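To: structure desk
From: M.T.
Subject: fold request, one chain
Message: Could you run this one when you get a chance? Sequence is below, nothing fancy, just the single chain.
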Amino acid sequence: MSQSAMAENLKLGFLVKQPEEPWFQTEWKFADKAGKDLGFEVIKIAVPDGEKTLNAIDSLAASGAKGFVICTPDPKLGSAIVAKARGYDMKVIAVDDQFVNAKGKPMDTVPLVMMAATKIGERQGQELYKEMQKRGWDVKESAVMAITANELDTARRRTTGSMDALKRPDSRKNKFIRYLPNLTTSRGHLTLPTQCWFNIRKLNIG
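Reply: Done. Structure tokens follow.
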């Protein structure tokens, strides 16, 4: 098949959970650029929930798409997404958040593209420790609060990386407080937990 014929026929989907967020706008922008450079059409669809996700896969199949990239609104949809894609003989790649099966185990058979979340978390932990030293806070009187969401793979990796980095220097025993928001009421707005901000506060915890 000639390159011009491929450019005319090849279609790939790019499904994201929060299209209004700059992160996903940037991903779509560069996907479009890759499509122009390599000769394929990118079909961009917002999938804020499970129903819209499965409907989007139906729409992609009807349009003749050969596969899709997806940042799922819920990692637990992984099995349903893969089953739907296989039913249409479509390829699927997860981006940012890894699929998990019904038991909560990572679906390692699905290709995953993501940032170096653990390394980012480690750097964050290192900088937090530097800031604590700069402010003259006594480790024995300080603690780390982690606002996170363990069900999101990217968030979990960043949180773990930060905590591991804070545990290493001088073999000290830091106090950690985890706050796990209830995501069932804020599924469409995950800005807070997905950013995994850590806060060091002076606490009277003895």
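Reply (cont.): The longest helix spans residues 117-134. Let me know if you need anything else for the meeting.
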